[in-house]
Amino acid sequence: MSESIQGSAIAIAAVERETGLSKDTLRIWERRYGFPRPLRDSQGERAYPMDQVEKLRLLKRLMDAGYRPGKLVGLDMEALRSLGKDAAGAEAAQTKLGAPYRELLEAHDVGGLRRQLQQALLTMGLERFVTGHVAPLNTAVGEAWLRGEISVAQEHVYTEAVQLVLRQAIGSMPEPSGPAPRILMATLPQEPHGLGLLMAEALLSLHGWRCISLGVKVPLEDIVVAAGLIRAHIVALSFSGSFPATQASASLQELRSRLPARTVIWAGGSSLALQRRMPDGVHPVPDIGLLPGLVDQWRHPADPSTT
Q1: What does pTM read for this prediction?
Q2: Cα–Cα distance list, 217 to 20, 135, 200, 213, 226 (Å)
Q3: Residue 199 and residue 277 in one domain
Q4: Which of 258, 253, 254, 252 is nearest to 236 (CA)?
Q5: Which of 171, 194, 223 is the last residue of a domain?
Q6: Of 47, 49, 256, 296, which has the fewest beta carbons less than 10 angstroms from its beta carbon?
Q7: Which domain holds residue 45?
């Protein structure tokens, strides 16, 4: 029998958006680990109490830090928060959230946060801003959440401000003149996070590339079709640390088999799949700071006779 819903509970699609865990992952964990334990609405659809959603958020963040779900799901919130503090504290000296950003987040000052980011952009220039400022700041914000120093809402405020500043920077750039490398950018249906993709788009646009972004949660079939229509030189995908490594590897293998040999694949992000052996024509990009070097390699390929 379906359980009746008592108190606040949200549908599985909303849980996917809130936690970054796919519907498939939620269902697999339910069968394999007995958690989460969804209630049922009047139509028999899954709905998740907010205390379970909070635990799922924390599980996802710990997976991004390198923990395996089988070691985590059975733990209570106190144990998970303790792990979170340990994970966040490991690099605290390098990734501590600076006072200006902390104060703006505590005040939920979206305008002030945006101005702080824009000032950093003007001071550093776009490439250094993305690789040397936003990338470590992303880590610091995530670890501050793990330590319980900021809320999920404050983390969303930060992400929204960064995305707005990056989109404005991209929108202010002129269209590439003449022939330019065409790069198709997307994430797969199980990956809802697009900030890394936007950071890459900003860097590549700065270097004069023609970026065509399909956004997040794009079916692999649509990526293949779009790559053919625009005759993409490169297809770039992003995988967060919570994306199942086996699934990421299988998806990259399938995509490689369905694209022309001339189309290179770049796989970015923190998924463990990027540490595995890649098929020919698939290049892992585990650090956004590697992109400028890849751009140079693309434009100035090594002469085989000299290697």
Answers
A1: 0.72
A2: 11, 22, 17, 12, 14
A3: yes
A4: 252
A5: 171
A6: 296
A7: 9-86
